[in-house]
Amino acid sequence: DSGVTQTPKHLITATGQRVTLRCSPRSGDLSVYWYQQSLDQGLQFLIQYYNGEERAKGNILERFSAQQFPDLHSELNLSSLELGDSALYFCASSPGGALSYEQYFGPGTRLTVT
Amino acid sequence: LAKTTQPISMDSYEGQEVNITCSHNNIATNDYITWYQQFPSQGPRFIIQGYKTKVTNEVASLFIPADRKSSTLSLPRVSLSDTAVYYCLPFSGAGSYQLTFGKGTKLSVIP
Lengths: 114, 111
Hints:
heterodimer, A: mainly beta, 7-stranded mixed beta sheet, 4-stranded antiparallel beta sheet, 53% strand, B: mainly beta, 5-stranded mixed beta sheet, globular
């Protein structure tokens, strides 16, 4: 158990809909990272937040957005969903602000868009 | 951004030593080499990190030659529970915000 929690574990929704994925980092970690893992693209970095502020951005679509709240939990919002958005979404956390080579990953949220 | 090349898959018998090599020809001076392990339907788990020469921890060893254009993850005496995907990831931690794990190497340990 990494100490990172994600909800929900599974999510099934239809194209065009909007969903919110939630992540709670390990106790004391200030950075939260979001990743998308699909069969054809591998594990892709989406975005990082550090202590409530956006710190780094990867291959995140404009239809996706994220935020980190004062209690350090984070939410990833996915809108206008397409079939291709079906994937595993992982959240990870680390103590510091710089991109850390040692990140602790949660169990993931499996999103299925039908 | 350093591009990595790893074998897509490897098979090994239980009890054998497994070496997985990753090529990273255009690695930057500031990049460290990190390796992660991922079991099916779980998030990746950090295994080991190094800059050059050899690093060893309780799980694995990492060998990085002087030119740093490749690295080799060594898993001693693998067991069935080592069946997983292993990712090689050059990482600088400063200014390099593209964390792409790639497809990794799927290791299958056979009894």
